[in-house]
Amino acid sequence: MTTKTSIYRDEYMTYAPEGETCPVCKTAIGQLQPARRGTEERASAAPVVVYWHAACVRKAADK
Ligand SMILES: [Zn+2]
Fold first, then answer.
1. Where are the alpha helices (DSSP H) in 1-63?
2. pLDDT tens, the chain, 63 aa long
């Protein structure tokens, strides 16, 4: 399960660490809100781990 075929590769549902901000809606992810952990791959640097609200993942996927 290491294929990398998309910019946003969903990994699993979890809870975000304190202080994480959702890049879609620019608001903090509460610790009691389910979040989707994923990896944003960048051409010039190492991938970064990001967290989205569960609902925001779907919005991002629609783009
Ligand atoms: Zn969000």
1. 54-62
2. 555 444 455 567 888 889 999 989 999 999 888 899 888 888 898 888 889 998 888 777 776
CA of 3 to the centre of ligand 1 (A): 26
CA of 57 to the centre of ligand 1 (A): 8
Tell me, rounded to whole angstroms, the distance of Cα 18 from its chain centroid: 14
Q: How many residues does the chain have?
A: 63
**Full-model pTM:** 0.65
Q: Is the dihedral of CA 25, 27, 30, 35 positive or negative?
A: positive
